[in-house]
From TrEMBL:
Keyword list, A-Z: Acetylation, ATP-binding, Ligase, Nucleotide-binding
SUPFAM superfamilies membership: Acetyl-CoA synthetase-like (SSF56801)
Residue span(s) of domain AMP-binding enzyme C-terminal: 516-595
Similarity comment: Belongs to the ATP-dependent AMP-binding enzyme family.
Domain of life (superkingdom): Bacteria
Single GO MF annotation: AMP binding
PROSITE patterns: AMP_BINDING
Enzyme Commission number(s): 6.2.1.1
Start and end residues of each Acetyl-coenzyme A synthetase N-terminal domain: 11-66
CDD domains associated with the record: ACS
Name used for this protein in its record: Acetate--CoA ligase
NCBIfam families hit by this protein: Ac_CoA_lig_AcsA, PRK00174.1
Length: 632
């Protein structure tokens, strides 16, 4: 299609056009979709309130664009390939026609269970096909989906359900991940005991385990499906109606509900997918992310389906039954485009080359990376051993809030530089600013990464609290969207993302606020106070290091305290946020005004205590010596 860029010259041309005439540029792209009513105006915006609206008064349904639109030309093309956790179980494939039917039927089930346009529906499900169907079914009837990664605890789920006031929860009986068995429905039961807004729970039978079904509240999906038709009229949505909420961590407080809207998100996810990965009609594409994260939303589901691609969904983990599983799946399904996270690459690197060398990987054409900076060693390993030096590695930088990829090479089109995300996509206007918010115009510099102009896929608000959105992203530097990341720009204008400059840490590509983990630790009755920092971790990118002051009423031994603290974090957030190191301390380095000097704790966690910088403002410098002496 005409809006796929085919050469670096074309990229430069498109980029110029998108800067000189952003509205014309995006209108041209938006024309390619099915709209029930065309927009009156392309863009209205200011970054002060902030107020960003794209395709004003345009009417559409994103699922008509993901599904119905393709039926004529791609009805029998594979839309979704599902690969189960256990390789001995048979995979399942759905054509666009079949996917359309599944989505319509679940949409009807939702309607039968009282879900209306605008209602919030929470989805807490393993990576089974019904998860994909359910997300699209919500979109079909205009319900706002809020997917919660199935690794989060009951408490985390309850917080999110209560914040969104969700009325319906879609879930499964259980889940098998690797060799682990997780009683998903039991976690849901525990969560919604504190969620008065929930009226219905719709349960998918996946494992066949016995579960509690509460009369009047819980229903089985397979029974509900018996009662519905195969057709479902799509709800007509305004371009700016919310499509979904996805919770993500920031530097303060509880996770916030990032809101994306129907029109802009659709245009942006499709445009970025086809250009970055250079998808071609017969390609099989695989994104290994869970749909519980933004990468799964935009690049497992919406982007590929909008483009009419064949997208693969994997229930399992990279190391089950062994560390060759990814490569076995690539060969089995003839995957052409493969998109994963640096943490997965590093863990497979550590497992040894034999696992990769046993597979041909001949089908691969493009490799992608997302979620955290990819170190050069991992980049080269991926490029040489997986891509056989014939596949470009596109290092895609973006965020839950940006909706889609912002800075990345376009595969086979842009120059590559290991550990560099590269150039901004057309329509994206990044700038680097210094501490005072002044733009740094030269190259070969480092600064805070901001955006000075809106793009269609950007965050519109944080659910239920617009002021929080303003404070989190638009208040640090006037008139700019602040990403929270630091970046370098090289002499050719290519960007290299360094990482978060706020109190957000990125553990195996998962975002956590240090305050959020501290709150979880502080729930433990033995804990008086805690401070959490990130430190470089060989596989996870960043590990979690917790400094904890315990009370002495019930001292126990240190290992016991550590286990207790871990249990609190698992209960509050989930296993994914388990601290890697817990140091029990008597005091924390505080300034006279009571602020914890995290800079010092970071140095200790990194093992770099020779130069701690200025410690003269510390209330009690002895605390630092004690912490250094006890460092893990
Ligand atoms: C980090 C994931 C370096 C970054 C899509 C960002 C990256 C945060 C990259 C967003 C990359 C993501 N190189 N860092 N290619 N991609 N990040 O919201 O710090 O889960 O701010 O979105 O991950 O994480 P989120």
């Amino acid at each position: 299609m005409s809006y796929t860029i085919k050469s670096f010259d074309e990229y430069q041309q498109a980029y110029q056009e998108s800067i000189q005439n952003p509205e014309g540029f995006w209108a041209n792209i938006a024309e390619q979709f099915t709209w029930q009513q065309k927009w009156d105006k392309v863009l209205d915006w200011n970054f002060e309130e902030p107020n960003v609206k794209w395709f004003i008064n345009g009417k559409l349904n994103i699922t008509e664009n993901c599904l119905d639109r393709h039926l004529k030309t791609r009805g029998n093309k594979l839309a979704l390939i599902w690969e189960p956790n256990d390789p001995k179980e048979r995979y399942v494939r759905y054509t666009y026609r079949e996917l359309h039917e599944k989505v319509c039927m679940i949409a009807n089930v939702l309607r039968n269970n009282g879900v209306k346009k605008g209602d919030r529906v929470c989805i807490y499900m393993p990576m089974i096909p019904e998860l994909a169907f359910s997300v699209l079914a919500c979109a079909r009837i205009g319900a706002v989906h809020s997917v919660i990664f199935a690794g989060f605890s009951a408490t985390s789920m309850a917080d999110r359900i209560n914040d969104a006031q969700a009325t319906v929860v879609l879930t499964s009986d259980g889940l098998n991940r690797g060799t682990k068995q997780i009683p998903v429905k039991r976690v849901v039961d525990e969560a919604i005991a504190t969620c008065p807004s929930v009226q219905k729970v719709i349960v998918v039978e996946r494992t066949g385990w016995a579960v509690n079904m509460e009369e009047g509240r819980d229903v089985w999906l397979h029974e509900e499906l018996q009662k519905v038709d195969k057709d479902c009229t799509a709800e007509i949505m305004d371009a700016e109606d919310p499509l979904f909420i996805l919770y993500t961590s920031g530097s303060t407080g509880k996770p916030k509900g990032v809101v994306h809207t129907c029109g802009g998100y659709m245009v942006y996810s499709d445009y970025t997918f086809r250009n970055v990965f250079q998808y071609q009609e017969s390609d099989v594409y695989w994104c290994t992310a869970d749909i519980g994260w933004i990468t799964g939303h935009t690049y497992l589901l919406y982007g590929p389906l909008l483009t009419g691609a064949t997208t693969l969904m994997f229930e399992g983990i990279p190391t089950f039954p062994d560390a060759g599983r990814f490569w076995q799946v690539v060969d089995k399904h003839g995957v052409n485009i493969f998109y994963t996270a640096p943490t997965a690459i590093r863990s497979l690197m550590a497992a040894g080359l034999d696992h990769v060398l046993s597979y041909s990987l001949d089908s691969l054409k493009v490799l992608g990376s997302v979620g955290e900076p990819i170190n050069e060693e991992a980049w080269h390993w991926y490029h040489i051993h997986v891509g056989k030096e014939r596949c470009p590695v596109v290092d895609t930088w973006w965020q839950t809030e940006t909706g889609g990829i912002m800075i990345s090479a376009l595969a086979h089109v842009s120059p590559l530089k290991p550990s560099h995300a590269g150039y901004p996509l057309p329509g994206i206007q990044p700038i680097l600013v210094d501490q005072s918010g002044e733009e740094i115009k030269e190259n070969e510099v480092e600064g805070y990464l901001c955006m000075k102009f809106p793009w269609p896929g950007m965050i519109r608000t944080t659910y239920g609290d617009h002021e929080r959105c303003r404070l989190s992203y638009f208040a640090a530097y006037k008139g700019l969207y602040f990403t929270g990341d630091g970046a370098k720009r090289d002499k050719n204008g290519m960007y290299r993302i360094i990482g978060r400059v706020d109190d957000v840490i990125n553990v195996s590509g998962h975002r956590f606020g240090t305050a959020e983990i501290e709150n979880a630790i502080n729930q433990n009755k033995h804990v008086v106070e805690s401070a959490v920092v990130g430190y470089p971790h060989e596989i996870k990118g960043q590990g979690i290091y917790a400094f904890v002051i315990c009370n002495h009423d019930d001292p126990g031994n240190e290992q016991y305290l550590r286990d207790e603290i871990i249990e609190s974090v698992v209960a509050e957030i989930g296993k994914i946020a388990k601290p890697d190191k817990i140091q029990i301390v008597n005091g924390l380095p505080k300034t006279r005004s009571g602020k914890i000097m995290r800079r010092i704790l970071r140095k200790v966690a990194e093992g770099e205590t020779s130069n701690l910088g200025d410690t003269s403002t510390l209330l009690d410098p002895n605390v630092v010596d004690e912490i250094i002496a006890g460092a893990l």
